[in-house]
Amino acid sequence: MPSSKKVQKSAYFIGIGGIGMSAFARYLHAKGWRVAGSDGQKSSVTDELNKEGIRVKIGHDKAHFGLKMARRAAFSRIIYNRAIRTDNPEFMAASAAGIPLIPYAEALGEVTRDYETAIAITGSHGKSTTTALASVMLMHAKRDPTIFIGTKLAHLGGRNVRVGRGNYLVLEADDYGAAFLHYSPSVAIVTNIDREHMDFYKTFARVKRAFLAFLARTREGGTLILNWDDRPLRSLRTEVEKIATRRKLKVVWYSASAAVAKKVKKYITLPGAHNLSNGLAAYALGRHLGIPEAKILSALHSYRGAWRRMEYRGTIAVGSSKIKVKVFDDYAHHPAEIKATLAGFREKFPHAALLVAFQPHQAKRLEVLFKEFVAAFGAADATWIAPIYKVAGRDEPTKYDSAALVRAVSRRYPGSRIFYLEDLKLLRKAVGELLATPLFHGRKQAVLVMMGAGDIVETTEKILK
């Protein structure tokens, strides 16, 4: 007789330490799957996963996922992220053994089809904050959502995923590599479209086509929520209307010029025009879902930010200066994000010395957007540029480096206090020396923003210690 014992589903993640991969691993683990994985380096995320019962090996070895006799494997599927090359030993062993290899975006796409209301939030900038605001709002409204977000959120206990019991899914939809074309949302939100991830898309026209293709994946009878204030997105309104007509979609445009913007600005605690826009997107979603306005505004007011999004980390004293320095972490790595974030800090701290330590992320981004980077730091009183954080599998040699950026800014804006910093270990000393100069006499407070998508966050930890 066949056994009546239920077979436990299982998955092994190659590259489990990534923010998206770790969230998905946690999701399957919470759903009762047996989950394990590997990553190229040890991190706080891999440590957390091990503590939660998800076994993580550091390094890549085919023995990790347990090929057994008769070429049977201990895991029924292997999920891998986009950074994993086909010559990865685990990838090759799984392929030779016939174990299903599924890209992360494709596996996550399957999940979007399991929820009656699947909300996918994307954009070149602001998608993490907008996803966070939408998630907090749905939790406030007792919709018990499942959430995938590309950051750590205090409202989720410092995690990047929440497994709810309701019929709602909130998903931060990644635009890199056109990953979002695997998703099937019932509600699609686009915050903006910019020249981002050009190492993949090559041209801005291809970026726009990818976003249109994403909108076209919205389920028939669904809803599009779009930012009218973003010129590139607004320029696609004719194509958007065609998609909406073909798929019977409702189109909702939100704008900071709308009357409700004043009300949202009053309640949202995050500074900056970009965060007001993110709040308006969440507000538009809430109204579409029938959430009472009072609950929407209460949720927006309760939100206190996310990991590395204008995140306050602590206050320090440096050098001989008596100025107290507030230290913040921020993930901004695109010129548009840098300008918007610094404008937000200037709004919040109008009288403080605004200092920035920036680590460029990926050489290709710096090359393609070099002119935009040159003009991105105008709001800062002083800026230190660290060497480029190079992304494995995405970087090639280029003449555009951090030192070249500093020279270009100095030429274009004579008198700019911008410095090349060969080693981030020297930052604390450099900040102390600068604040001790007559230029900053009379200042009582300084704000130091540790900015970038690379490993500059590790320097933040050291500065605070």
How would you summarize what this structure contains?
The protein is α/β, with parallel strands linked by helices and 465 residues long.
Features:
UDP-N-acetylmuramoyl-L-alanine:D-glutamate ligase, 7-stranded mixed beta sheet, globular, Protein-Tyrosine Phosphatase, Chain A, 20% strand, 18 helices, Rossmann fold
Description:
A 7-stranded mixed beta sheet has the order 8-7-9-6-10-11-12, with helices on both faces. With 465 residues, it is an alpha/beta fold. The longest helix is centred in the middle third of the chain and has 16 residues, at 273-288. Helix 5 (127-140) crosses helix 11 and helix 11 runs antiparallel to helix 12. The chain contains 18 helices and 18 strands. The chain has helices at 19-30, 44-51, 89-97, 104-112, 127-140, 198-201, 204-215, 231-234, 237-247, 260-267, 273-288, 293-302, 335-348, 363-368, 370-374, 402-412, 427-435, 456-464, and strands spanning 10-14, 34-39, 55-58, 78-80, 101-103, 117-122, 146-153, 159-162, 168-172, 187-190, 223-227, 250-254, 311-317, 324-330, 353-358, 382-385, 418-420, 445-451. The chain is 37% helix and 20% strand. The chain has 3 domains: 10-104, 3-Layer(aba) Sandwich (Rossmann fold), CATH 3.40.50; 113-302, Mur-like, catalytic domain (UDP-N-acetylmuramoyl-L-alanine:D-glutamate ligase), CATH 3.40.1190; 311-464, Alpha-Beta Complex (Protein-Tyrosine Phosphatase, Chain A), CATH 3.90.190.20. It is globular.
